[in-house]
Amino acid sequence: MWYGRANLPITRTHVTRSGGRHVLLQNDPRVRNTAGKICRGVDTRGLGGYIIWWPACGFDVLRGETLARVPDFIIKALAPPPPPSPSPIDPASALSSAASIRGALGVLARATAGERNAALFWTSCRMGEAVRDGTISESEALAMLRAVGRQVGLLDREIVPTARSGMREGARL
Asked: What does DSSP assign to residue 168?
């Protein structure tokens, strides 16, 4: 029984139909609804969650005490992992990324009348990869694609949907 080893505070506890336990604790905004995150077979219910009130069905109340505070070890177990720390920028890779972006935009800039849409889509895919890798923002990529697309004679109504589609595709690769 996990709850016997968990060092839980004395709090209201109900027997469930399956022989399990509902251990009731004070509301804490850091507790969400989970299934098996703390331990296999242990679920939590927070704001918006619910449990069956087994005493209403005649099942035992093992402990009728008032609700205890949620123990720190439960809060810690339910806490989301910290975000990854940003990796330091390598100047060489930053330069190669900028060169890759310039090279991809150059493909679009050199596109002729029969190649422009295909070149726009290919370049947009490369820009999507750069956005995914954190080299540039999506708005920066779209602005560059618009500027170069206009230079080769495309209209915004052609550029924007193709660029967005290509960037989505590139971000998935």
From this structure: H
